[in-house]
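Summary of Year 1 activities. Much of the first year was spent building the evaluation harness for sequence design. The harness presents a backbone, in tokenized form, and records the residue chosen at every position. We chose the following record to illustrate the format because it has been used consistently in internal testing since the harness was completed.
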């Protein structure tokens, strides 16, 4: 028996409406103890309007949706109570439901019960969180595909055939005297593996692309002090996020911002200028800049178009194994030297 759980399904803040969700075997009995109408005889999905009551005192007038097992999100009897969005009212209703036998749900417990009742698999359960946190339409579409079972349907045939192969191997080993079953030899296993590897690689590649769409790309903007990194960040974000001055070393810490680039989230990191420094605070910022480079999926290396000094060369060397884009700044100060610089950069 699954005990009845209760939780607020909408954000815990003042709003026009709030939704309180319950699920469990005795869900209808518990709600009936504090609702103006009886739910115990419900045989199909039903919508009701009535009052939540604390004895004879009206707590709130609500709209109530009752879902009969197994036709609910969790596969259990479930109730959704739509009340006014006062956190005082929400608190009173939840306390009343707990008083009558429900308990507060744990994080993710509704999804867990849906999985336990085979209403969804683990891939679909994870996609709910991805859908909630989607920041772009592409990420939302990808999460919906997973929620609809598209991803699971790609994995199931591989899983099924692998289980069949393992079963056949075990039978061959454990029962060699059986002659009426197909023997699995080394050649058959190699043939299966050779056939399966490209499919697995294809799934992994698709998963990596999906992860980029879902989570976005970490982009570190690096360069020597006062080369224009903060100005570039502000230009990307179309706001004055980072302080910009003509004083080298203005940025001491990593300044972050996000931008939606045609459906792909870029997590931008404006780093402290990289150079040798005796200033303790600036040195900490430079160490953070190097860590940002290590964590970044893409590095934008900002150089002055007029010259390439030793600090630039060190930065190019440090980022040579990263996916990077070289950006020339302050072109008005010497664009005619760009070709010469490019020849040097190609060696890094």
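For this record, the design step produced the sequence shown next.
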């Amino acid at each position: 028996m699954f005990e009845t759980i209760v939780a607020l399904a909408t954000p815990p803040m003042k709003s026009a409406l709030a939704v309180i969700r319950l699920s469990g075997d005795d869900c209808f009995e518990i709600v009936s103890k504090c609702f103006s109408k009886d739910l115990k005889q419900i045989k199909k999905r039903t919508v009701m309007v009535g009052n939540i009551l604390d004895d004879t005192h009206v707590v709130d007038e609500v709209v109530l949706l009752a879902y009969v097992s197994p036709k609910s999100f969790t596969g259990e009897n479930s109730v959704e109570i739509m009340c006014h969005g006062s956190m005082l009212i929400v608190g009173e209703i939840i306390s009343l439901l707990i008083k009558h036998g429900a308990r507060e749900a744990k994080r993710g417990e509704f999804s867990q019960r849906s999985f336990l009742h085979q209403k969804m698999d683990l891939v679909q359960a994870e996609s709910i969180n991805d859908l909630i946190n989607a920041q772009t339409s592409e990420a939302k579409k990808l999460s919906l595909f997973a929620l609809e079972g598209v991803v699971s349907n790609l994995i199931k045939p591989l899983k099924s055939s692998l289980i069949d192969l393992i079963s056949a191997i075990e039978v061959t080993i454990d029962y060699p005297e059986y002659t009426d079953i197909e023997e699995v030899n080394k050649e058959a296993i190699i043939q299966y593996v050779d056939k399966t590897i490209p499919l697995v690689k294809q799934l992994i590649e698709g998963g990596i692309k999906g992860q980029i769409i879902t989570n976005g790309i970490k982009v570190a903007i690096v360069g020597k002090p006062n080369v224009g990194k903060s100005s570039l960040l502000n230009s990307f974000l179309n706001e004055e996020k980072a302080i910009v001055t003509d004083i080298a070393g203005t940025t001491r810490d990593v300044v972050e911002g996000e931008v939606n680039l045609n459906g792909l989230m870029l997590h931008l990191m404006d780093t402290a200028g990289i150079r040798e420094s005796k200033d303790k605070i600036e040195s900490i910022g430079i160490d953070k800049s190097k860590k940002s480079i290590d964590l970044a999926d893409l590095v934008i290396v900002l150089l002055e178009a007029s010259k390439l000094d030793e600090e630039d060369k060190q930065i190019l060397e440090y980022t040579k194994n990263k996916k990077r884009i070289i950006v020339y700044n302050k072109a008005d100060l010497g664009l005619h030297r760009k070709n010469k610089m490019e020849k040097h950069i190609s060696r890094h």
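The chain has a mean pLDDT of 84. Quantitative recovery figures across the full test set are reported in Table 2.
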